[in-house]
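User: Sequence in, structure out. Go.
Assistant: Echoing your sequence, followed by the structure tokens.
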Amino acid sequence: MNLTDDDVQMGVHDFFTPALLLEFVDLPDLVALIQWGERQFDEGDGTRSVRRLADEPDAGCLTHWSAAPGGFRYLVEAPGGIRSGFVDWHEVHRMVNAGLTPVRYGALRAAVESAAAHDAANLTRPIPFRMLEAWASQWARRASELAREAAAALDAICPPVKAQPALF
């Protein structure tokens, strides 16, 4: 069976992390998009998989991306049968650009850079024992806030088929 429009939208949304989306939108041309896409499958066996969340189409089913020339093959193991198809990087670029505005781009860049800076600042250093738990709690809380901001920026640019409820 062929992919549905919802499958393609879910495949594009679920492919990206906020940091990967920022890399993708900063690429200058189609050749760079294709080269970038090929690098995403270089590690491991050349495939990626994710299970769909509750309230998404075909909740709980397993989905797979595999490298293909100029794009990727997306496969959905749905209860009604397996659906698969080819998605090219030009189509992904068109879908991402449809949701990209200067404000959303700025929010994505700020969120990704803030999260990276926060992670880089987590250097192992001596901390008084009684402060360790409080420090770790504060660091984790801030990391969670930054991850939520980055995920919201990704969802605004490349929305899922059905928005998930807010975490907070």
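User: And one key feature?
Assistant: Residues 30 and 70 are 9 Å apart (CA to CA).
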